[in-house]
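Supplementary Note 3. Input sequence used for the single-chain structure prediction.
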Amino acid sequence: MKKTNNLSKQAMIAALYTVIGFVMAPLSFGAVQARVSEALTLLPVFGIANVWGVTVGCFLTNLIGLATGANILGSLDIIFGTVATLVAGLLTYIFRNIRFKGLPILSALPPVIINAVVVGWELCIMINGSFHPIIFTAQAVSVGVGQIISCGIGLLLVRIIENNKRLKEIMMR
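The predicted structure, written as discrete structure tokens, is reproduced below.
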């Protein structure tokens, strides 16, 4: 029963990530982006299993984005964007107990930094055809700012979950 509950929770996280990504598609893809669904990358704070829901959600969002033409990065983003989310989720989990004023602020840094670098690189390659330090830096900063916004929302989400006994219980199973 516990495995079924966990699988259901991960499917809901993946579905929520995907739905938010597409409801806010104009912000989710492109050279200037704030993928609000990335707020969910803070959910591994509540358990390592949540990494999978977020990673599958990212994969589905990128895949459907490619199929609909919304994701300009295409297969690069399906592969590298998904791996970036996986690595960021694992690091978010590892840093979960390092807190400032009760918030896992350090856990918010991996999604910001890793996605800024990886998606910034993807955008640089897509825009320029090859790596160029100035274009990469501009894209990485742009993606990083969007990630800061999304992870700020994620920290608020963590606070809301932690202050609700029932939600916290569900997320920590």
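The first helix runs from residue 2 to 23. The chain has a mean pLDDT of 92.
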